[in-house]
Structures are given as C-alpha cells and as structure tokens.
Design brief:
Elements: E1 2-3, E2 5-7, E3 25-31, H1 39-45, E4 53-54, E5 58-62, H2 80-87, E6 96-100, H3 103-111, H4 148-169, E7 179-182, H5 202-205, H6 209-215, H7 223-243, E8 251-254, H8 283-301
Organism: Roseateles oligotrophus
Protein name: GDSL-like lipase/acylhydrolase family protein
C-alpha cells in the first residue's frame, strides 16, 4: 500500500514538473480545511488526503491550498486553479475528483442567528435552528429544535452547486469521470476552537457549533444529539444525490458516519478522542476515515461494486 502522492497546482508549473504518467490513478482534489495544506493544520489535525493509501501508485493535485478560512461550496471564484484543471479542454484527463465540501456550509447555516441586528426575526427557511418560542413538541425529541424549512433551503443549495461542479467536470477532458465526496463525522459541540495563528475572526477560529447552540438556548444535554441529527441529515442528502444517477451522474459518496471514532469529551477544550478541536479530526481520526475512504475510492476506480457499510458500525 502506498500513500497518496500529493502535489499542488504550482508543482505542475515547476521545472521539472512531476511525472503524473507514472501513477496508476491521477486525481484532482478540492475542499475545505480537511484538505488544507497549511503547515499549522497539517501539524495540528492532519490532512485527510495525506492519510489515504492505495494498492496502485496514485497521486492527487490538491487545490485546497494553504488557506485557513472556512471554504464554502460556491467559493469557486477563489479556486481558479481547480476550475481550470477540472474544466479546461487542455487540462489533464483525471481518473477522478476528490471533494471535501458541504460541512462548512452546514456549520454556517447552523450559526445563522434567530434575529437580525435590528431585532427582526430571521425566517425559518433561512436558518437551521428554531428559537425557543418555535420549538416543537417534546415528543419529537431533538427534532423539535430543527428547522425543516431551513433544511430544505440548504438541501437545494447543496444539490444545485454539486450539479454545477459535475457540469464543470463534463466541460473538460475528465467528462464522466467519478467524483468522490465524503460525509462528515459527528462532532461534539464543545469550547474547543482553532489554535491556528492569525485567523482572528470567530467564524474561522471557532468554536463553531458550541456558541450557536448556546445562543439558541438549547439544553446542553441535547447538544450531542442535535449535532448528530444535522450530520446525519447531510449524510442522507449526499447519499440520495449519489443514488440519483440522472441528476448526479458519476457522483460517489462515502458515508464517514459509519467509521467508528472516539468521541471528544463534552466540555473539553483541547484535543480529545479522535478530535483536534470541535470540528477537525486529529491524526488518529484522519487516519481512520482516510483509510476507509481510500478503499471505497479505489474500488470504484477498479470498477468494483461498492457495498454500503453496515449500520452496526455507526458510532
């Protein structure tokens, strides 16, 4: 088994440039902080790509870059290298595309407050959480806190933008090639922000879910279950998209929620379990998910029918 060799778009312009032809599988990658090549992130909570291993020599050109900020799905204007390498007619023909996207958009949606600065209530279809006065019946469990109209808005947003990415793929030499997305692991809402230097803004430095759930006055005993509800909603959405071969041709989704992880301790502020901070995995967490995702990706590339992991593996 060989580790995935990772290059940057800049490496392709160097002299000499890496010889991609020597690899059995050549992949293009773009994503959020789980793919970031920032030195502080790699040191602190690893890079999911660097933990991937394959039986055949494989490489990825990672366009995620060194940015520390949250990357949103539609931020393609800030990712010109990815768009060019994916859709340009003279771009390499990739065997597949690796995407780590959607999780940060989910967090941003959860952070949307119930009220605007002028005191006006934000409509339910524009946020994921409900104000105390909007909570449903206790018999519905933690779903009482969840905005289904807001989820419908988020779902359409995600579906629209993934379709756009598939359209970009089909404009270049990689037309019809598989696009791989992963779901996310379930974080424990806790006061564990980033220790990266220079981020400044709370949106980037975190914690992320913890202040949002506090602002909505959700009972602390329900925080873990609310986090699980949102992440599982996202997993079901992504898997339903992958199952829709007409709307999302060539999309393959790996359900990361099936990988057993050591959860972080509630209330902890540092690295705990398989988590470096509230939403980022540490090296052991990245290792577990990356190895499982690698098997899924390589099976698809080799034309092997993949089987959904047993629900008994859910953590």
């Amino acid at each position: 088994m060989d580790h995935l060799a990772c290059f940057t778009p800049g490496d392709l312009q160097s002299h000499p440039a890496p010889d991609l032809a020597r690899f059995r599988w050549r992949l293009l990658a773009q994503g959020d902080s789980w793919f970031s090549t920032a030195d502080d992130k790699i040191k602190a909570h690893a890079n999911l790509l660097q933990e991937m291993v394959y039986k055949d020599p494989s490489c990825a050109v990672n366009c995620a870059g060194k940015g520390g900020a949250l990357s949103h799905l539609v931020d393609l204007e800030s990712a010109p290298d990815f768009v060019r390498l994916l859709s340009s007619p003279d771009a390499p023909a990739w065997d597949g595309v690796l995407l780590s996207m959607g999780g940060n958009d989910l967090i941003s949606a959860a952070q949307t407050p119930a009220h605007q600065a002028d005191g006006q209530r934000v409509p339910l279809h524009l946020r994921l959480l409900r104000h105390q006065t909007e909570w449903g019946a206790p018999s519905t469990g933690v779903a009482r806190y969840f905005s289904e109209p807001g989820w419908a808005t988020y779902s359409e947003y995600l579906r629209t933008n993934v379709r756009h990415l598939l359209t970009l793929r089909d404009q270049g030499a990689s037309v019809g090639k598989p696009v791989f997305m992963h779901c996310y692991a379930v974080p424990m809402p806790r006061p564990a922000g980033s220790d990266d230097v220079g981020l400044g803004a709370d949106q980037f430095s975190g914690p992320w879910l913890y202040p949002a759930l506090k602002a909505y006055a959700l009972p602390a005993a329900d925080w873990a279950a609310v986090s699980r509800l949102m992440v599982f909603h996202l997993a079901l959405l992504l898997k339903s998209m992958a199952a829709d071969k007409e709307q999302f041709p060539g999309l393959h989704v790996f359900d990361s929620t099936t990988v057993p992880l050591a959860p972080a301790t509630p209330g902890s502020s540092g690295s705990s379990g398989d988590w470096h901070n509230e939403i980022h995995l540490n090296h052991s967490g990245c290792f577990k998910i990356a190895r499982a995702w690698s098997e899924h990706v390589e099976a698809v590339l080799n034309g092997v029918k993949t089987v959904e992991p047993s629900s008994k593996r859910r953590s």
